[in-house]
Amino acid sequence: MKTMTAVLTKEDKMSREEIYSDIKATLGLVPSFFKKVPDSTLETEWALMKKVQMDKGAIPNKYRELIGLAVSAATRCEYCTLFHTEMAKLNGATDEEIEDAVHFAKSSVGWSTYLHGMQIDYEQFKKEVHHIVNHARWVQTHMKQ
């Protein structure tokens, strides 16, 4: 796949004021953390935030925010946890879905800790996972009949 990289000249780049105007139009204010971003990367960081955090993607935004919440909770980032919780609610997540996402993250991190700590053989684990998935497919296929 051929990709094109845009090279912005100084004249093509938005000014800090223009970027702030876009941020304010989108968010209602310019969050203080954006005011800390250097001029050299502000336009890129804002564009990336809009693309990754706000644009529609293959995964509906509610579920993307629930994933973001689960990751944020697992990494213990209170800033991101608050942001993704509120964005998940804004995108229609219920309290039950929020709890389920966090509970799932807790379980995943716990099992990851155990598997790594016990140094479970990865190749054996991989074989067992494939066996489990094949069994589940078989059960699903035969239960529908």
Helices and strands in order:
Layout: H1 16-27, H2 32-35, H3 39-54, H4 61-75, H5 78-90, H6 95-117, H7 122-144
Helix pairs in contact: 4-5, 4-6
Task: Report on this structure.
This protein has 145 residues and is mainly alpha-helical. The protein has a domain at 12-55. Helix content is 73%, strand content 0%. It is built from seven helices and no strands. Helix 4 packs antiparallel against helix 5 (78-90) and helix 4 (61-75) crosses helix 6. It is elongated, with a radius of gyration of 21 Å. It starts with 15 loop residues before the first helix and ends with a helix.
Q: Give the integer mean of the pLDDT values.
A: 92
Strand content: under 5%
Which regions are unreliable across 5 or more consecutive residues at pLDDT < 50? 1-5
List SSEs in N-to-C order: HHHHHHH
Rg, rounded, reads: 21 Å
Reported for the largest beta sheet, the result is: none
Q: Kindly state the number of beta strands.
A: 0
Label the overall shape: elongated
The amount of helix comes to: over 70%
Number of helices: 7
Structural class by helix and strand composition: mainly alpha
State the separation between the terminal residues, measured CA to CA: 43 Å
Q: What descriptors fit this protein?
A:
145 residues, 7 helices, mainly alpha, disordered N terminus
Describe this structure in a few short sentences:
The protein is mainly α and 145 residues long. Helix content is 73%, strand content 0%.
